[in-house]
Amino acid sequence: MNQMKRVCSFMSNNIAVLIIIFSVIAFFYPSGFSWATNYTTIFLGLAMFGMGLTIKAEDFKVVFTRPKDLFVGCVLQYTVMPIAAFVLAKLFQLPTDLALGVILVGCCPGGTASNVITYIAGGDVPLSVGMTIVSTILAPLTTPVLVYFLAGSWVEVSLLTMMMSVVKVVLLPVLAGILLYRLFPRQVDALRDFLPLVSVVSIVMIISGIVGSNAEKIITCGALVMIVVAIHNGVGLLLGTGAAKLLRMEEKKVTAVGIEVGMQNSGLAISLATANFAMNPLATLPGAIFSVWHNISGTIYAGIRNRRKLKSYAQTAAEL
User: pTM value?
Assistant: First the structure.
């Protein structure tokens, strides 16, 4: 049992490495993974269900005890990343498929990986969890509306259809997980150490499937998408951090907001592209690359924030 817990912990802490390894394998052996694209919605639903199972009643306390912090975080989440995505798509004159994919990523809520990265960075984890919960609950309305307005100049967007997609693959699985934990808390707690494995496997399979299905196309446009995704993610991290600092938030909150704004639920972007834009197959590619990159950049960001914190502690000690 302890061995299995260690395996689950290792996989959760090294999801970026696993994504890279399986993506490389899928690139050179596409037939072994391309089948996974047929089950993208199911895999994401499982990941969201796993997230719901980890949410405790006390996680909602932050919603009522710190509404200002959550409001600031969610406003930044749904303004910085969508606007940055739109500007980058125009600036780089991206083809329709790629522009749509980048905008889908930008309009999605925060991802659960942000909570782990916030913990590693010594940030305000309850605030990070609260922001993820609130932005996810708001997603059925905010994500489709933002995509409708920002991507409408490239493709026709069905607002109602997209809303139903987000409800089915995000909101319902999360609520089902929360309800199951509410009904059977002891049983779920007994499995808590293994629950992240569900999300890890699901996300790895989603991305590997996308890479396998688009192996040839990645060769022709992968570098461009990588550049845009890296800039997009960097803008989110920097502007999220900068805005939180301007609002004179505590350093732990600054860290949480910066990470939450910069790290998106790119699995949802992939699922929405698959379910709603079948005529634009490459729209899934930015989400797949973002899933790899934001875990890497998030870890780097966490290291920088930790070094700044240690330097601050050292200066304070010297002054004393």
Answer: 0.84
